[in-house]
Amino acid sequence: MHLSEENTLIEEIIKSKSFGNSTTYANLLRYLVKCTIANDIPKETTIASEIFGKKNFDPSQSTLIRVYVYNLRKKLNTYYLNEGIHNKKRIIIPKGSYGIEIVESKLSTTSSKNSFNKNWVILILGILLFSLTLYSLLRTPNYKKAFVTKNELWADLIKSNLPKTLILGDLFIFSEFNKITEQSRTIREVEVNSSQEFSDYKINNVDSNVEIEPLSYTHLILGSALWIKDLSQIFYSINRDFTIRTMSRFNPKQLQEYDIIVVGMHKTLGVFRAFHKNSKFEYDTIEDAFLFKEDATDELITYKPTGIADSYHTDYGIITKYPGPNNNSIYQFSGIWDTGATQSLKNFTDEKLVSAIENELRLKFHTIPKYYEVLIEVKGIDRMELSSKILYLNRLDEPQN
Questions:
Q1: pTM for this prediction
Q2: Which of 47, 57, 109, 235 is the most exposed place for a label (fewest CB within 10 A)?
Q3: Fold type of domain 141-170+220-395
Q4: Running DSSP on this structure, what letter comes out for residue 42?
Q5: C-alpha atoms less than 13 angstroms from C-alpha of 268 in its C-beta half-sphere
Q6: pLDDT for 294-306, tens place per residue?
C-alpha cells in the first residue's frame, strides 16, 4: 500500500485539536506510517524501543504499547468525528495490528443524524448530571454528619482547630514552538509531572529547532469534581471550611499551617510522593507502579495496573494518614491511575467503606493506629471505579518528641 501521498493528511491530523497536541502520539503515528510504507509492520518490542526508549520491553509484563495504540485509535476516531468528518479517506489502525490502512469514508446522512442525536443525548445527560450534582451540594447531608462524627478515622480532622486544605493532583502541561514551521502547540506528556521532570525532558528530548516552556496553567483530572463534591458535603455538614489548591500551586511552606488532604494520581503528588519515609511502599516512576517489600520473605511485590484505562481494568490505590511537620495531619488518597485515586477517597467518604477500613485496622492492630496506610485493589471500567478490596494495612510510626 502506498501511503506517501497521505503525509500531508497525517500532519493535518496531528496538528488538529482533536488529536490532543501530544508529541508522543504524533511520533507513534508517524512511525507506524513509516513502517507500513516500508512493508515492515513493527512488533510491540520494536515500538517500545524506537518510540519509548525501552530496550528490554516485555509485552507479557506490560500493556504500555497496547494502551498507547488503543488511545491512538481513539484519537483518530475523534478527529474523524470532528475536523475530519468530511474527509473522503480515513486512516485507521485495524485491531490486532500495528499497520496503517486507508479506507473510504462511509459518511452518510444517517450517520450525521445519528451523530447529531448522540450529541443531544450527551448534552441532556450533562445537564441532568450537573443538576444532580448541584442539588447534592446544596442540600444538607445530615447522614454524612452522623457517620463522620462517630468514625474514629475522621476524629482528628473534626477535633483539630487547624484550617483544612484540599490539594488536587493536576497534570503538568507545556508549550512547544517550532522555529522552522513557526507553529505552537500545547503538550501533555505522561512522563512529565513536575518542574524537575520537565527539566529532564527538556534536556533529553528537545532538538535545537524546538523551544518548550511550562505554561501558567495546568489540567485537572476529571474526577476532581467528584472529590470536591464528596468532601464539600461532609465539611459543610460539620460546619468546617476548607480551601482548595492544586499541586502545581502548592507552596511547601504551607505544610505547617494546615491539616492537609491530598488527592490524585500518585505521579502528580509532587512533594507528597515521598513525604512519609517509613512507608512500606515505593513508587516506581518508570513503571508507574507501587513496589512493596514483604518483611517476612524480603520479596519485592509489584502492584501495577492491568487492562486498559478506558475499558475494564484493575488499578491500585493507597490511603495514608501521616504526621505533618507541626503536629498537623496529612491525609493522602492516591492511585496509579485516576480510578484508584477516586476509589481511595471514596473509601474514606462512604460510610460503609470507611467503617470497613476502621474494622480491619482494629482487627489487625487491636486499636486504630494514629498513622497508617492501606493498600486497595480497584476494579473499574472506562475510568470509573466499580469495586475495591483491602489488600494490606500498615501502622506508621508516630513522630518522636
A1: 0.64
A2: 109
A3: Chitobiase; domain 2 (3.30.379)
A4: P
A5: 30
A6: 776 778 899 999 9
